[in-house]
Automatic annotation (TrEMBL):
Keywords: ATP-binding, Nucleotide-binding
SMART domains the UniProt entry points to: AAA (SM00382)
Designated name of the protein: ATP-binding protein
Superkingdom assignment: Bacteria
Alphabetized GO MF terms: ATP binding
Residues in AAA+ ATPase domain copies: 24-214
UniProt key word Nucleotide-binding: yes
Protein's UniProt keywords contain Chloroplast: no
Pfam families, A to Z: DUF87
Length: 481
């Protein structure tokens, strides 16, 4: 099905359209200085394509939450939820093709990058049967894919950059079409920008940005000056979804607007100076009562229900119900079989989750429990050699809830050795359970966990290392480096 989106007027007033099907296959990069009309362009694209394709918007400033009313997008305020809940939302979004706005407003830079990385990675790792076509719009993309080191931890920067690279480089086969917008091409990682085949370049003034924009548009350097002269809301477009040659587009009108607008001059107060001084230096009144507390955020379970309305219950098949113990035994056997598979360490989590579901069904469990995040936690515990999770292990799992999923296995491996008083695991063992052959990566990961005060590493005078879990008082036996 071919859907042509009217983006605005070209030279001579003729309508310029964008082929939505081609856009899904070739991705889009939008660039322009602040005030050039990038958000207006994205809003036009979203409004005109709504109803034809699923839309997922990563919104660092909360500008696109107004899409919720007229177009039915669900808004997820990331500041109200944990990283694991964000991952669950992303998984449900892909399964049920819900259009959403991930509002990152209220988080600091590192929080925004961490949240966006987890969200985009969960979209990317959805099971194959959920690879439906979707536009993934990332505004201010230079925040999530910086060209140089950002003022955040290296681990967070790498995770965010990796998620953006996956979206733009490998997302097409999974149905994800990246649409990224940036103020500065020079601040955006080149391997992320280079994967787009369609470009809409707005007004910019710095020579380095004009030169990169001209290169992407296939223009000579001397022609780059015209990018500086573009009017607000006018963009130079090139790409298979728009035009085979650079063409100027004046973006058309939109129906919704951002919560914040451009500053507008208003008259200054006309009161006489004496009156203003009286107002400024009047006695301070008693403090007003504090405002009522803000409404509580919507529980994650309710958000999940809104993203995936439950269908009417179907009549249960005539199959004898299993007890909780029988279900748990099947889950444990499935996880153990995955851990014993030598190829499992190199397979992506989404593929392992599918393997787990198939194994459970082959053992007679028609509806395997555990969603992808819960499966990842149980698999990490199984890889660390944990059996039944007693109360102390449940507390240890809760203690590590803020760690990225891929680090949980290494934490539990060390915690098991510490609890049982066994020798401290070697760097090779930590690297294997982390899914890498690089000892350097394993060391950086262990240092990251220690920075979160989950480990205390001690090296005695003879060079032997031991690790303590201070919250529980568990300590490994010292082992030589």
């Amino acid at each position: 099905m071919t859907v042509m989106i009217d983006m605005g007027a070209g030279p001579g007033g003729a309508a310029v359209t964008m082929d939505l099907e081609e856009l899904l296959a070739t991705r889009l990069l939008v660039q322009g200085n602040s005030g050039s009309g990038k958000s207006h362009l994205l809003r036009r694209l979203l409004e005109r394509s709504a109803g034809h394709v699923q839309q997922v918007i990563v919104d660092p400033e909360g500008d696109f939450v107004t899409m919720a009313g007229p177009y039915g997008h669900s808004v997820i305020d990331a500041v109200d939820y944990s990283e694991r809940e964000i991952i669950r939302f992303a998984t449900r979004i892909r399964e049920h093709r819900a259009s959403v706005v991930l509002n990152l407003d209220g988080l600091d830079a590192e929080g925004q990058m961490r949240c966006a990385a987890a969200f985009l990675l969960a979209l990317f790792e959805a099971p194959r049967e959920h690879w439906f076509p979707a536009l993934v719009i990332v505004d201010e993309a230079q925040l999530f894919a910086p060209a140089a080191g950002a003022e955040v931890s290296e681990e967070v920067r790498r995770a965010s950059l990796s998620a953006m690279t996956n979206l733009m480089c490998r997302g097409r086969k999974r149905g994800l079409a990246g649409v990224i917008a940036t103020q500065r091409l020079a601040k955006l990682a080149k391997n992320v920008a280079a994967e787009a085949s369609n470009f809409l370049m707005g007004r910019t003034f710095l020579d380095i940005d004009m030169a990169r924009a001209a290169d992407l548009l296939g223009m000579e350097r001397r022609q780059a000056e015209q990018i500086r002269d573009l009017e607000r809301g006018t963009f130079l477009a090139l790409g298979p979804a728009v035009s085979r040659r650079p063409i100027s587009i004046r973006i058309g009108a939109v129906e919704t607007s951002a919560r914040s607008g451009s500053p507008v001059l208003v008259p200054l107060p006309s009161a006489p100076m004496e009156g203003l001084q009286g107002l400024l230096f009047a006695p301070v009144e008693a403090a007003a009562p504090p405002p009522p507390p803000p409404p509580r955020p919507m529980p994650a379970e309710e958000v999940l229900e809104r993203l995936a309305p439950q269908p009417a219950a179907e009549p249960a098949p005539d199959v004898p119900a299993m007890s909780a113990e029988e279900v748990e035994a099947i889950v444990a056997r499935s996880l153990a079989a995955i851990v014993e598979d030598p190829d499992a360490a190199t397979r992506p989590p989404a593929m392992l989750f599918q393997d787990y579901q198939v194994r459970c069904r082959m053992m007679g469990l028609a509806r395997p429990p555990l969603d992808p995040p819960a499966f990842a936690r149980r698999l990490s515990a199984a890889r660390a050699g944990l059996g039944e999770l007693d109360e102390e292990w449940q507390q240890a799992m809760a203690l590590a809830r803020e760690l990225p999923e891929e680090m949980l296995g290494a934490f539990l491996l060390v915690a098991r050795a510490a609890r049982e008083g066994e020798p401290c695991p070697s760097e090779d063992a930590v690297a294997r359970i982390y899914g890498t052959s690089s000892l350097g990566r394993a060391r950086r990961m262990m240092a990251y966990i220690e920075e979160r005060n989950l480990f205390v590493t001690r090296t005695d005078l003879s060079g032997k290392r031991s690790i303590t879990i201070p919250q529980f008082g568990w300590t490994t036996q010292p082992v030589g480096a």
